[in-house]
Amino acid sequence: MTNILIIGATGSVGSVTRQYFLDNTDDQLTLMARSTNRLGSLNADRERDLAGSVTDAATLKTALQGQDVVFAALSGNLAGMAQSLVTAMDAAGVKRLLFIASMGIYNEIPSSLGASGNL
To answer: Quick one: pLDDT at residue 75?
Structure first.
């Protein structure tokens, strides 16, 4: 069993990733998002939620406690977010990061999700 922090858990990539882990692993998930009320119901045995921003050092410190892997599916100021995240991960001793930052490069975002994110 692995402890995985999913940052951006309410977004399209984060929510698909969440469901994949629930369906295919026994991993423990920490779901971080600015608005956790959009997560829906949680699997109390395997999931916990945490509201906050990836640029908030205190929130990241809490989120990273006990994590083995971070999966970040973010948009916006990616350079600033990445710097905040890597700094916090270094301090917490978390070494594994998957950072997804290319959604929309192939115009694959459907209009139902807001195709304005397509490049």
So the answer is: 81
